[in-house]
Amino acid sequence: MKNLFKPYRIKSLACTLLALSTVQALAADWSDTAVSWRHGSQFAEPFNPADISKDIFALTHVSGYKYGTNFFNVDFLQSDSKDPASATQKSGAQEAYVVYRNTIDFGKLQGRDIKFGPVRGVGATIGFDWNTKNDAGYNSRKRMLVAGPTLMWDVPGFLNTSLLLLSESNAPSIVSSRYTYKTHAMLTANWGIPLADSLAFEGYANLIASKGKDEVGAETGTETNVDAQIMYDLGSQMSLAKNTLRVGLEYQYWNNKFGNTSATTFGKGYKASTPMVRVEYHF
Q: What is the CA radius of gyration of the chain?
């Protein structure tokens, strides 16, 4: 059983399922695509003691097909001068962060619902994270494959929880070659709960186990990342279609960011508590 959790087996399984899900995504039954902007002034970066302002522009696509759902998001993050693009520049760092998830519903695969207690469905989630960033020190080049079981809960809107195995590597400027972390687990939840005709509570929460030693031999810590927002359908007050233009308040709590801890960062930038404003346009 232990051999099943080796990184190359996780990668092989995830790549196979990703290829299958891409084919299925071509026949979407429904879809929702949005562009958004959010802004906050209390972001943090490991080893940096400053509060950082960031503007984040995003493209998000969600769709459903015969056997499940697809989620794709790319964030383009622009920092202020407190997170510089290089040691010789005053302009802020820039980052692109991509997330893709495909959730396959086993009940839809076999043609009958799998329900028990408060659970309305059982499935599996596979996907990847990818990022690139130019900054004064680390210059992240993250690559990560994920795979694991998912429960879909019987709530208004949706609530999914997954237990995923993560196969992660990075190639920052501080090392000469790509470094692969220990395969580790993540307990994750994502939700979208309607509160009223024009209000919704949405977000995600990740609890990520330690990924072993980092690129310089320091022990990583358990990571917590919770991001939630209350969104208001402003477009309905402007004769636009339902949920076309949405505005809201967002909050992110991130502890041990990317596995960095107080001990490894000398207490600088490993934790953030960040309120934001958010605007979305759906088409």
A: 19
Q: What does the CA dihedral 45, 47, 49, 54 come to, rounded to 10 degrees?
A: -20
Spatial CB neighbours of 36, under 8 Å, sequence gap ≥ 6? 57, 58, 60, 278, 279, 280, 281
Q: In terms of Cα–Cα distance, which of 237, 247, 230, 236 is closest to 281?
A: 247
**How many whole angstroms separate alpha carbon 60 and alpha carbon 72?**
6
Q: Locate all alpha helices (DSSP H) within the chain, ordered by sequence.
A: 7-25, 106-110, 262-265
134/265 Cα distance (integer angstroms): 19
Report the predicted TM-score, pTM, of the whole model to 2 decimal places: 0.90
Among the listed residues 106, 111, 116, the one whose alpha carbon sits nearest the alpha carbon of residue 68: 106
Say which residue the tokens 């309905």 belong to: 236
**Per-position pLDDT tens, the chain of length 283:** 344 344 445 455 445 445 544 545 457 899 999 999 999 999 999 999 999 999 999 999 999 999 999 999 999 999 999 999 988 888 999 999 999 999 999 999 999 999 999 999 999 999 999 999 999 889 999 999 999 999 999 999 999 999 999 999 999 999 999 999 999 999 999 999 999 889 999 999 999 999 999 999 999 999 999 999 999 999 999 999 999 999 999 999 999 999 999 999 999 999 999 999 999 999 9
Phi, psi angle pair for 107, to nearest 5°: -65, -40
Comparing CA positions, the residue from 133, 215, 145, 129 lying closest to residue 180 is 215
Distance, C-alpha 258 to centroid of its chain: 12
